[in-house]
């Protein structure tokens, strides 16, 4: 497996056609000052159009594939800013397709989990409800540098037009961009269903109403963890208990993971750009509903090299009909 994880060893000046990103046409750096789109400006300023490409060669059919991919992002690498060429071992495809496939696999690891050490146990990196995903606290993974590596993956994919991370909690983004969370943390950000329901029950009580013994007993360890064991559960200070338990469970117990993710992303200046251009957030971390592609949009993304080739037109027609049939079955029609 070849990658750019050891400096410029894998960045060569061959294949000048690879200098152009396979995902989009980039404007020269001289136009950066006139660009009003912060996403386009970020990519123009961050991507090194003139340097040699980063070349990745991996075999996705082996048990070591996940480890090989993780090794690419184990260390900081200036070549992440370069244009990219990917080739899968024993596969002939080159160009845009393998690059898209690589980033799809990469962000699949981030979004859906990966097998780190035990091939029979999936390790989740994020948890929580739809559009309230937060990093899973895991000291072992932090010590291994995995969350910093994941930050590099997120930024690298975004820079090259690959899939983003969908469904991130607004509280996490607030923490990264403001170093505080103000009113951003909500009960919906708490991944533990039982705790979330208990806090909702507590907040629904009248100000001077005493919680039940069962509720007080359930919340006891959470109050202790959040350092509000001495704060009463009734009266004016009840909101402090709610606020601190939410803050502890969403941010404080995941503080190191959040910091490592931000550090990895910021090696490609992504967090700094988010701080300066908060309107980028929807593009970098879109809602989960945006991960579903409309069938007509999917059809529009399919192209053939020779539009006048009758055989290609037949294949295109078959694909369009197949998409329609799958869509109808999914909709239950």
Helices and strands, with pairings:
Layout: H1 38-46, E1 54-58, H2 65-72, E2 84-88, H3 96-112, E3 126-127, E4 134-135, H4 139-143, H5 146-159, H6 170-178, H7 193-204, H8 213-225, H9 238-250, H10 255-266, H11 270-276, H12 281-284, H13 295-301, H14 310-330
Parallel strand pairs: 1-2
Antiparallel strand pairs: 3-4
Helix pairs in contact: 3-5, 5-10
Write structural notes for this entry.
It comes from Porites lobata. This is G2 M phase-specific E3 ubiquitin- ligase-like. InterPro entries: Hect_E3_ubiquitin_ligase. This protein has 333 residues and is mostly helical. Helices cover 45% and strands 4% of the residues. The protein has helices spanning 38-46, 65-72, 96-112, 139-143, 146-159, 170-178, 193-204, 213-225, 238-250, 255-266, 270-276, 281-284, 295-301, 310-330, and strands at residues 54-58, 84-88, 126-127, 134-135. A two-stranded parallel ribbon has the order 1-2. Strands 3-4 form a two-stranded antiparallel ribbon. Strand 1 (54-58), helix 2 (65-72) and strand 2 form a beta-alpha-beta unit. Helix 3 (96-112) packs across helix 5 and helix 5 (146-159) packs across helix 10 (255-266). The longest helix has 21 residues, at 310-330. The chain is globular, with a radius of gyration of 23 Å. The two termini are 46 Å apart. Residues 4-33 have low confidence and may be disordered.
């Amino acid at each position: 497996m070849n990658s750019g994880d050891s400096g410029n060893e894998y960045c060569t000046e061959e294949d000048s056609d690879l200098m152009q990103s396979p995902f989009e046409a980039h404007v020269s750096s001289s136009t950066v000052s006139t660009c009003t789109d912060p996403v386009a400006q970020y990519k123009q300023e961050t991507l090194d159009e003139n340097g040699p490409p980063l070349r990745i060669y991996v075999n996705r059919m082996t048990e070591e594939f996940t480890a090989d991919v993780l090794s690419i992002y184990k260390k900081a690498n200036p070549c992440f800013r370069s244009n990219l060429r990917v080739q899968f071992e024993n596969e002939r495809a080159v160009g845009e397709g393998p690059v898209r496939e690589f980033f799809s696999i990469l962000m699949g690891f981030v979004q859906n989990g990966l097998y780190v050490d035990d091939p029979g146990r999936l390790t989740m990196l994020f948890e929580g409800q739809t559009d309230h995903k937060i990093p899973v606290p895991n000291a072992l993974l932090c010590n291994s540098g995995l969350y910093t590596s994941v930050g590099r993956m997120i930024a690298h994919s975004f820079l090259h037009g690959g899939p983003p991370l969908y469904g991130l909690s607004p509280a996490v983004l607030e923490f990264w961009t403001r170093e505080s969370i103000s009113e951003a943390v909500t009960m919906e950000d708490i991944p533990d269903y039982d705790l979330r329901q208990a806090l909702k029950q507590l907040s629904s009580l009248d100000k001077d109403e005493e919680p039940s013994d069962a509720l007080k007993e359930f919340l006891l360890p959470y109050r202790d963890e959040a350092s509000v064991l001495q704060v009463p559960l009734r009266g004016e200070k009840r909101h402090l208990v709610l606020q601190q338990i939410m803050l502890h469970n969403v941010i404080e117990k995941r503080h190191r993971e959040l910091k490592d993710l931000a550090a990895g992303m910021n090696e490609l200046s992504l967090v700094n750009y988010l701080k300066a251009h908060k309107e980028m957030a929807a593009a970098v971390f879109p809602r989960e509903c945006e991960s579903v592609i409309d069938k007509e949009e999917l059809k529009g993304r399919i192209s053939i090299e020779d539009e006048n080739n009758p055989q290609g037109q037949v294949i295109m027609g078959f694909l369009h009909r197949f998409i329609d049939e799958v869509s109808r079955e999914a909709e239950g029609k």
